[in-house]
Design a protein that fits this description.
With 290 residues, the protein is α/β, with parallel strands linked by helices. The protein contains 13 helices and 10 strands.
Length: 290
């Protein structure tokens, strides 16, 4: 996995200004959905901030006003299968751990849709501030994907087990105001105040002790760091999802703007189980007749 250099970034914008690093997913045409290139560039950009101790915090956002990120780019994900799954999964895990391992706070500045893997990206960040047009959700169940790169680990801890299962199993979405009320995000502001409020947060962080923030971030992460084995298991579960007919149907249906036909897979599984039961009964009858 080759690291991208700042002068070759194609999918993101990166700027350090007034001791704040700004990383913008710059694919508004695709609602800032990310592909392998995007993930490589974000990993490189986040990691590079370690080289400048004067950087007080990192802000991650999406270009335009339609979406923070719609998650993974289906064109990229539909090429995945059991054999090459690690090429995607390792990037996702790598970005998550790079964000969590950073010694400064990482702020997700959310404008518009924050869905699927895009919402998991926000979950990896330390703080989330959103405009009043933001929408948060996990869409994996609707499109045949598996939200095991942070959603299944963190959402139950943040909003509670029952609501987390509703959010994932029913693909329930939350407006920004609802997200504040359930503790999924920190703050919601009018869209025209989003940048100003984020800058105010950054200014507050600048006035605080860097060594205290570094130490307390490590301490805050201590308990959830124990979830790392769940991430590893999640990668393996996801590897077995990619490339299956069911996952392709879900993503293709989304691209075709139609409802996916997942029932045919349930029926196929039932037919296979019925054949197994019938064969077992037949074998048992033959043994009893012998």
């Amino acid at each position: 996995m080759a690291a991208a250099a700042p002068d070759t970034y194609q999918d993101i914008l990166f700027e350090v200004k007034d001791n704040v690093a700004w990383i913008t997913i710059n694919r508004p045409r695709f609602r800032n959905a990310f592909r392998e290139q995007s993930l490589d560039e974000m990993i490189h950009a986040v990691s590079s901030t370690r080289e400048d101790p004067t950087i007080c915090c990192v802000v991650i956002t999406g270009a335009g006003d339609k979406a923070f990120s719609a998650g993974g780019d289906f064109t990229a994900m539909m090429k995945l299968n059991r054999q090459n799954a690690h090429m995607w999964n390792d990037r996702m895990l790598g970005l998550a751990m790079t964000i969590r391992g950073l010694s400064v706070p990482v702020i997700a500045m959310v404008n518009g849709y924050c869905m699927g893997g895009g919402h998991e990206l926000a979950l990896w960040c330390d703080l989330v501030i959103a405009s009043d047009n933001a929408v948060f959700g996990q869409t994996g169940a609707k499109v045949g994907a598996c939200p095991t790169v942070g959603a299944t680990q963190y959402i139950p801890r943040i909003i509670g087990e029952r609501l987390a299962r509703e959010m994932i199993f029913l693909a329930r979405t939350f407006t920004a105001q609802e997200a504040v009320q359930i503790g999924l995000i920190n703050k919601v502001v009018p869209q025209d105040r989003l940048l100003a409020e984020t800058l105010a947060w950054c200014e507050k962080i600048k006035g605080h002790s860097s060594q205290t923030i570094r130490a307390t971030k490590k301490s805050l992460n201590h308990e959830s760091d124990a979830l790392y084995p769940s991430w590893q298991q999640g990668m393996e579960l996801l590897a077995n999802i990619w490339g299956t007919e069911e996952s392709i149907e879900g993503m293709q249906a989304f691209l075709d703007k139609r409802k996916p036909d997942f029932m045919k897979f349930r029926q196929s599984n039932k037919d296979a189980l019925d054949r197994y039961v019938a064969d077992f009964a037949n074998d048992r009858n033959q043994r009893s007749d012998a």
